[in-house]
Amino acid sequence: MEKENKALAIQDTYGERFQYCWGCGPKNKEGLHLKSYPSVDGETCICKITPDEHFTGGVPANLFGGMIAMIFDCHGTASAAWFNHHKRGLDFNEDTIIGRFITARLEIDFKKPLPMNKEIKVTSWPEEIGERKVIVNMEMEAEGLVRAKAKIIAVGVKDNM
């Protein structure tokens, strides 16, 4: 079982103009402030969240599918940034401004409903790390069961985007 390194969240190292995402931006006052952490060995990234009840879906007491997609999206792009950064052997500390990645494609397999008021854990690992493209696989679990799986293709953003 991988343990996350909670010293520094990946999202906290985004450049100033990339810190306003509703899902994971640390400077979005209305946002969820999702945090993704590299594992101690750097081979996976982990995100944990217990969604508020107002994110219920069409089936009462289950999480809204769009929220599941948003969690995968935010965690997946943060993970892509980390895996690219880590592969290049760069330091990761409070002074880091990590390269920002955005979603080119997101595929989700919904396996089982996600119950409300339960902690969700998303674990990610790289499938492929290229110069500007990173493919990341993810699993979302709650109560010890895998509830959804996803694959994201994320691309690095140029500074002038």
Automatic annotation (TrEMBL):
InterPro entries: HotDog_dom_sf, Thioestr_dom
Cleavable signal peptide: none
Pfam families for the chain: 4HBT
Highest taxon, organism lineage: Bacteria
Domain Thioesterase stretches: 62-144
Gene3D superfamilies: Hotdog Thioesterase
SUPFAM superfamilies membership: Thioesterase/thiol ester dehydrase-isomerase
Descriptive protein name: Thioesterase domain-containing protein
